[in-house]
Sequence to fold (217 residues):
Amino acid sequence: MAQQVAHEIKNPLTPMKLSLQHLQRAYQSDPDQARELLKRTGSTLIEQIDGLARIASEFSSFAKLPPPNPERLYLDDLLRSAGELFRRQSTHPQAVQWELPPEKVPVFADRNHLQRILNNLLQNAWQSIPAGQPPRIEVGLQTGNGRVQAWVADNGSGIPEEMRHRVFEPKFTTKSSGMGLGLAMCKGMVEQMNGRIWFETSDEEGTSFFIELPLAE
Fold:
């Protein structure tokens, strides 16, 4: 449980910190720009902090991770919010790109669980890109047949063939640090929402993770 909590808390902290540092720099160089930037980033940061607070509260009482609390929400809004948070940690303005439909996309799911899933996929995508290579991460979704399919695609190194069958195993990781619990937890949370998660990968070309969920009525 401690490993799970540490993993889930760690993922959003770096982009949150970098967003605040960006605000500080903007305030020093252009206070007017800082005020406008604060309006755009404030609500996103508050959502992330609220999610972290829920996890910390549950952990302090030695309970399980928060049980799902499904509600009707818009998946396109969550995708845009999560991608925007990570975009600010890059020196490449177009590092994160969106492919979202013009209409709202409702799902019936737990907001905090979806935020943790998206944070995990974005963090993994970012870390898969070799140092010195311009990052390119695509966040998108499409609908059809009463389902919605969302994806996070990167231009990283790809997952080696001999490791692909173990990606969703608890404690499996290709990283030099970390407990490797993130994708196993993502899979469990997605399946709890009556959805599924899978990936496509190619050596030296990148990886795409897909999530499919039922559309809300």
Notes: Residues 59 and 65 are 7 Å apart (CA to CA).
